[in-house]
Amino acid sequence: MTPDRLRQTAMALAVGRVAMGVTALAAPSLIWRPWVGDTRGVPAHVLGRALGGRDLALGLGALGALRAVPPAGAAAGAPVGAAAGTAGAWVGFGAVADSLDLVTTVAAWDELPSVGRWLIATTAGGAAVVGAVAAWSLTRAADDSP
After folding, report:
1. Is there a contact between 91 and 59 (Cβ–Cβ < 8 Å)?
2. For residue 146, is pLDDT > 80?
3. Exposed, middle or buried: residue 122 (CB in 10 Å: 0-12, 13-18, 19+)?
4. How confident is the model at residue 145 (pLDDT cuts 50, 70, 90)?
5. Which end of the chain is more exposed for a tag (fewer CB within 10 A), N or C?
6. Angle at the Cα of 56 (from 51 to 59), degrees rounded to 5?
């Protein structure tokens, strides 16, 4: 995958994370019910909104950092290093969060709704892998920059 394609993929992950965060803040049970089942009550809404805030912050941070990274075809001499390093860190933080979502889902596998556990395992696992590859690529671009 080309660096520009990885950057676009990382941006798509960040946009999805922002959308999920906003939705969870507005209607927490809509996002979290498939994952954990019953989301009635204040504690479930508080937790859902807190996780929504996490995703919103990670997504906005990644988007802001990724926008500062010039495309691979940009004019020679465009500063890539620091911007790519910062973007790689934000995308990497998102990959860590997705990895932890996967680990906690697997740890509670038998207690979670059948469809929801597979949905979270595949989406969180996929986002973790793609995010880690994109973060690595961005960090590498930062290291290779003069």
Report:
1. no
2. no
3. exposed
4. low
5. C
6. 120
